[in-house]
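Review this:
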Amino acid sequence: MISHVLSILVDNNPGVLTRVCSLFNRRGFNLDTVSSGHTEDEKLARITLLTKVRDDEGIDQIIKQIRKLEDVHKVEQLDNENSICKQMLFVKVKAEGSNRQEIINIGKIFGVSVIDVTEATLIIQILGDNGKLCAFENLIKPFGILEIVGSGFIAMQRGTDAVI
């Protein structure tokens, strides 16, 4: 399966996100992450999707169908070289005794923020690409991950070429 990041500029209207996501459902594609938010223009919103498909033909078809939706202004497939793509995770991990300092030391390497501390746990915030997040997760897994929640990926084209 090949991962694809789509940046979709839409009218900031109710139901647009549902209509875009339902296209993936009808075609049998899973959405790994979905995030949506306002843009520099309050009338517009940007939807960022991360999906995996078997081949480029499948993603080309879904892009064509998204472009046909009434409230869609532009759809761009972002590549790794010309875009920045990040996700934020909150990770709740067991952190008792000497393990606490070891977890914090690992976190420093990854540039995390400890956002909550109890006697038995830490909640850590980490921002990064998929590789960084997976590496961090694998290193702290032996300590006992209690819960993870992710924001979904956000992405932006590099340079002066705007998606709009």
